[in-house]
Design a protein that fits this description.
By secondary structure, the protein is mainly alpha-helical. The protein is 72% helix and 4% strand. It has a single domain, classed as ABC transporter involved in vitamin B12 uptake, BtuC. α9 crosses α10.
Amino acid sequence: MTNIFLLVLEQILNGLTLGGIYALIALGYTMVYGILLMINFAHSELFMLGAVLGWLVYGLLPSSAGPLAAVAVFLFSMAGTGLLGILLYRAAYAPLRKAPRLTPLISAIGASLFLQNLVFLWKDSQLSFPGLLPLVQVNIGSLTVNSLQVFIISTSLLLMAVLSVFVKKTKLGKAMRAVSQDPDTAELMGIPVNFIIAVTFFIGAALGGAAGVLNGMYYGSIKYNMGFLPGIKAFTAAVLGGIGNIPGAMLGGFLLGILESLGAGFLPEAEWKDVFAFAILIVVLIFRPSGLLGENVSEKV
């Protein structure tokens, strides 16, 4: 019984670590959907590009940078992916704002394939991601916790907390909520809708870039196609929590990470853990399409 309890605790810790990464990616999906009512499937490639930018920035830093290297990698990665997010919006989505909903979706898939193949043509092999922080292990009873897990969980929670305060307390955040509810009325009230949408893309992409760096630190390697599976799982997390709902994306990410890790720990084949994400998506769409924290909203005609 003690061994089973310890295994459960270990898998919950692993799940919180993965869940923090999924939640950061899911926030990008849910923020864009909340404003434009579209799924930005190119967001998974922004996650990948965040890891690539982090790898590039680290290679340019002097060896004497020390702990400041981690700060520089995160700042440049988030800023770079944020700007790429704005560029993606301007090039692939802004011209299609008045088009039928299927059109931006096709554009998003095309942008995703373009970005992935662009990186593939540059580097088609796996890259080793640097360990930005020293790895320290601490034993809490029989449970072993390492500093990387603590860093990933705490960093993801901090970024989510900053986002929540930004959306609820700042003028830009209130403007984002107004545009999400009714963009036409918001524009009549003097809110620059195009600018607010660009800010939304910047923030969502920056969070995806931070998740890419955390993912690279956790697994120790990155690759041009690394965004596909985490992107799909993060989308599942967003749907699980309630697409368009920021607290729901956070909850869905952590919940999905825990369920996936528990499945990996107790199923005979660890590969079956990926089945959990898609099984959960199917169940949620059947029994609660609006998600755990989402609300059923009638479509305006």
